[in-house]
Design goal:
Elements lengths: L1 H13 L4 H18 L12 H13 L4 H20 L26 H9 L6 H16 L3 H5 L6 E2 L4 E6 L2 E6 L2 H13 L1 H4 L18 H15 L7 H14 L4 H8 L4 H22 L1 H4 L2
Antiparallel strand pairs: 1-2, 2-3
Helix pairs in contact: 1-2, 2-4, 6-8, 6-11, 11-13, 12-13
């Protein structure tokens, strides 16, 4: 099992998947191989579709959500694709694996005023507040994922051109940034970064120890400011990504353009924001138009 995992890790690395995808797939496949007990009672050729079904039931027993189970399925499919491509095995019990049905949850969208309030909370007179302001502004300016934000290096942002280069595996997206975000990042780079960065660290956003900020660290930052905002809704780092997309579409952006900026593989994932905007307009119309309110 150890040898297979090592080769699979190399396969993922060579295919340029993001760090978050790499970590999730390795974790899922490790759990799967442990469940089917490849190293002791099974050869890789002995695994059957019933074993994968058993793995699914085990995940359900441990309270895993449909989204998590489907990600595990994607990991297992990726593993068997690796075996086939590498010539290790043509056996694929995951070939007809179907996704678990899940109810699609509509994303939380902040209003423009709520975003403005959130972005004003960090105390930019402090090093931490100055850094946090830059991160939040950049996240809302670009709609990038948290993993993409914390993986940014210094040379990924070009303030003179008002753009940032966002990496997702082997794909690079170039996204424009508005003046307030550019100024917040410049302020952070001038006032904070030189005093906390380490000479061997090229990370754009660092913690107060000079190391690259982690995903968990950024989630804690957003949670802190979300509590300060005192809204009756859950705010996560992804909330700013959702708000970015919805606000662009609400103000006339083409869904196809927003898809490219978000880095969506399927336009269906982007169209949900158009649906949210249309529903919002319909609700406003029903509440506010005098003839629509009449019985």
């Amino acid at each position: 099992m150890f040898d297979l995992l090592q080769e699979y890790k190399e396969y993922l690395s060579n295919n340029g998947v993001s760090k978050s995808t790499y970590d999730a797939y390795v974790r899922d496949v490790t759990s799967f191989l442990s469940y089917v007990d490849i190293s002791v009672s099974h050869n890789i050729e002995d695994v059957k579709p019933e074993d994968i079904e058993g793995f699914k039931k085990a995940l359900e027993k441990y309270g895993k959500t449909p989204a998590t189970i489907n990600r595990c399925f994607a990991s297992v499919k990726s593993f068997y694709r690796f075996l086939k491509i590498s010539g290790i095995s043509m056996h694929d019990p995951a070939l007809n694996l179907c996704k678990v049905k899940q109810q699609r949850k509509m994303p939380t969208i902040l209003s423009g005023k709520e975003v403005d309030r959130l972005l004003r909370i960090p105390d930019i007179s402090t090093p931490k507040g100055c850094r946090d302001k830059a991160m939040l502004e950049l996240l809302y300016a670009t709609g990038m994922r948290v993993s993409e934000l914390i993986e940014l290096d210094l040379d990924d942002i070009q303030l003179n051109k008002s753009i940032v280069c966002c990496h997702s595996g082997n794909i690079i997206r170039t996204i424009p940034i508005y003046s307030a975000a550019k100024n917040a990042v410049r302020d952070y780079l001038l006032r904070v970064y030189p005093y906390y960065s380490k000479s061997d660290n090229n990370a754009l956003f660092i913690n107060m120890n000079g190391s690259r900020l982690t995903r968990q660290g950024f989630w804690k930052i957003v949670k802190f400011y979300a509590e300060e905002l005192s809204l009756n809704t859950e705010i996560t780092p992804h909330t700013l990504r959702h708000s970015f997309a919805a606000h662009l579409i609400e103000n006339g952006a083409r869904v196809e353009d927003v898809k490219e900026m978000l880095g969506h593989a399927d336009i269906a994932s982007t169209q949900i924001y158009a649906q949210i905007v249309n529903n919002r307009f319909k609700d406003t119309y029903t509440r506010c138009h005098p003839r629509a309110k009449s019985v």
